[in-house]
Amino acid sequence: MKLSLTLMIALVLGLFAGRNFQLDYRALSDVMLYLMLLLIGLEMAQKRKEIFEDLKTIGLLSLGLPLMTIIGSMVGGLVVGMAIPELSHRAAMVITSGCGWYSLTGPYLTTIDPFYGLVGFLTNFSREITMILVYPFVVRLVDPLSSISIGGATTMDSTLPLVRRFGGQKAGVVAFAHGFIVSLLVPFLLFVETRLLLR
Fold first, then answer.
1. Residue 7, in any domain of the structure
2. Residue 192 within any structural domain of the chain
3. Does 180 map to a domain?
4. What does pLDDT average to over the chain?
């Protein structure tokens, strides 16, 4: 609860700073992300024996979970698209195939239609924020490993520390593998789907 509140306060302060100060925040956020991944890598290197043991035990889960995440995202997009008249179900499926990778989905879809780009950015950005806000609570009610799907592609980087803290080391290993596989598949999905469904 305390961490979620802290993150919410940080988000609000970030929104305030972004509106009132003209600085290159993107460069700073990239540096912070690289630093965070460096520290996670150092920790994983120190616990490599335990991590390899965890990878042996999770095996198929590390492959099945990313696929179910992608399928679930697309089905969710289909349902939402059918419920919103302004958004076709085909476009909604493409948008949710971004699986939280907003920095790719938004700009890529903008090349096809600015409206799709905006919705794609906001939808996938909201997925990352949702993961940050709800994972600490959901992990108490649902299996920590299956809860990783909420974060989509973000579980490899920005939400990985959150998973490790509230889900444990094993969940952290699964989250990294999950985010890595989803991130590999998202560009291919976006490319194929936009040509099949939106062109």
1. no
2. yes
3. yes
4. 81
